[in-house]
Specification:
Blueprint lengths: L5 H25 L24 E4 L7 E5 L12 E11 L2 E14 L15 E7 L7 H8 L6 H7 L32 E11 L7 E11 L5 E6 L5 H8 L6 E3 L1 E3 L2 E3 L1 E12 L1
Parallel strand pairs: 2-5, 6-12
Antiparallel strand pairs: 1-3, 3-4, 4-5, 4-6, 6-9, 7-8, 7-12, 10-11
């Protein structure tokens, strides 16, 4: 710029240098996630999310308030107290899985009779801790390992030598329609109850101890589960809620019309126990 002063020329050089640096840094800035801060930690995947809300069966150690195990111990675990549990919460951090469980009943197998377990005490809440996993373990490997100690009803049946080829999975939504029951005279085989659970509830006041039979009516679907359950034994609202918590653990061999699995209406009984 002819006639300009040296100081002005130096100022223009500085401005151009700043603009060049900004343009060079622009792509790098745009490559980050919007709003993300440099060096911000990435939240780890929630590997145990699928366990929460499931009704499963804690094997061997159902009379312990706290169960702490190593990964290598799962396949050889021993004990005689199995309980049905609801998974209330679960997390995995630094190679350790922690699951908070609520005991809702005790499992029964048709081939083993009504009284099978030898539980020293009732534990309404159980903390299950399993350590020794690699920090980078996959969700499928983690779930498979934990299935040794807290299996699905389907896996529990197979562990006791009962052939059952229906898939595991969460209970169907209440709004899911159940196929209409098939009339009895059209059946080639009625449903066979393979696994059920006697319900248990702790008396909040620690004063009442009681045990009695409960009768229900429902529909066994082609999936081998109970649907549209109606309790025929009168119960209070709180006691009915406790009883219904064990029903997702029940499994039947479905009824058949020819070779087709069909829905069939059934009536069954089980025990409801109130303990201190």
């Amino acid at each position: 710029m002819k006639g300009s002063k040296p100081g002005a020329r130096a100022g223009w050089v500085t401005v151009l240098a700043v603009l060049a640096l900004a343009l060079a840094a622009g792509p790098a800035c745009r490559s980050g996630a919007p709003g993300a801060k440099a060096g911000a930690p990435v939240a780890p995947p929630d590997l145990l999310r699928s366990f929460v809300g499931q009704t499963l069966i804690l094997r061997h150690r159902g009379d312990d308030k706290s169960v702490s195990l190593k990964r290598g111990q799962l396949a050889s675990l021993s004990g005689e107290c199995d309980v049905v549990v609801d998974v209330r919460s679960a997390d995995f951090e630094r190679g350790t899985a922690r699951l908070n469980l609520q005991m809702v009943g005790r499992p029964r197998l048709a081939r083993r009779g009504a009284r099978q377990e030898r539980c020293g005490s009732d534990q309404p809440q159980i903390l299950l801790t399993v350590s020794g996993f690699e920090p980078g373990v996959s969700a499928s490997d983690l779930q498979s390992a934990l299935g040794e100690v807290i299996p699905t009803p389907e896996a529990y049946l197979r562990a006791h030598g009962v052939t059952y080829d229906l898939p595991a999975g969460p209970a169907p939504a209440a709004a899911t329609p159940t196929p209409a029951p098939t009339p009895e005279h059209l059946l080639a085989a009625r449903p066979e109850r393979l696994l059920w659970a006697d319900a248990a509830r702790q008396d909040p006041a620690h004063r009442v101890r009681h045990e009695g039979q409960v009768e229900l009516e429902g529909v066994v679907g082609p999936d081998g589960r109970l649907h549209d359950v109606r309790l025929l034994t009168p119960l209070s609202v709180e006691h009915e809620e406790s009883v219904r918590r064990v029903l997702p653990a029940w499994r039947y061999q479905p009824g058949r019309r020819g070779t087709e699995r069909v829905s069939v209406r059934v009536r069954d009984q089980f025990v409801f126990r109130i303990y201190f």
